[in-house]
Amino acid sequence: MGFIILLVVLGIGVLFWITSYNSLVKYRNWVEESWAQIDVQLKRRFDLIPNLVETVKGYAKHEQETLARVVELRNQITAPKKSRQEQIEANNELSGALRQLFALREAYPDLKASNNFNMLQEELAGTENKIAYARQLYNKTVMEYNTKTESIPTNLVASIHNFTRRDMLEIPVEERENVKVTF
């Protein structure tokens, strides 16, 4: 009788371990999938930028510095062996440069009237919204994964099988400041 109880307890323990491990794998894969969604949107933005730059070049010939900065930042993003954090930082810099590029629109009325520029700007704005949503999804998924790896009793399985805490994406300090609107 004691042997049967021991087998049942052992069986429950093994079942718990397998279930916990599989759950952690599922959450880890969700984190990776949500990062891949960010990557897809960043690639989309990356592909739109040359078209936007070429459109602006025709109108704003003496704004070469801004255009060169956008192209330079775009090229930095694809540098090999960048960590996720380095990629996000480079993309944040690119977002700032794109804001400067869109500010040129006010200085060049012909650019403002260009259908190509307007379509590309709308496409890029939509992509920026998708990037923001993908970042939110990533942070939510990372939070759920971290909670799972840090909660008792799955933290035992997580520590033994090297399921480590992941960092959430943060907004750069410059983007947290209030926007100044003047009339």
TrEMBL record:
Membrane topology of this protein: Single-pass membrane protein
SUPFAM superfamilies assigned to the protein according to its UniProt record, in alphabetical order: LemA-like
InterPro entries assigned to the protein according to its UniProt record, in alphabetical order: LemA-like_dom_sf (IPR023353), MamQ_LemA (IPR007156)
Main location: membrane
Keywords: Membrane, Transmembrane, Transmembrane helix
One cellular component term from this protein's GO annotations in UniProt: membrane
Keyword Transmembrane helix: yes
Compartments it resides in: Membrane
Taxonomy, superkingdom: Bacteria
Keyword Membrane: yes
Family: Belongs to the LemA family.
Protein's name according to its UniProt entry: LemA protein
Lineage: Bacteria, Bacillati, Bacillota, Bacilli, Bacillales
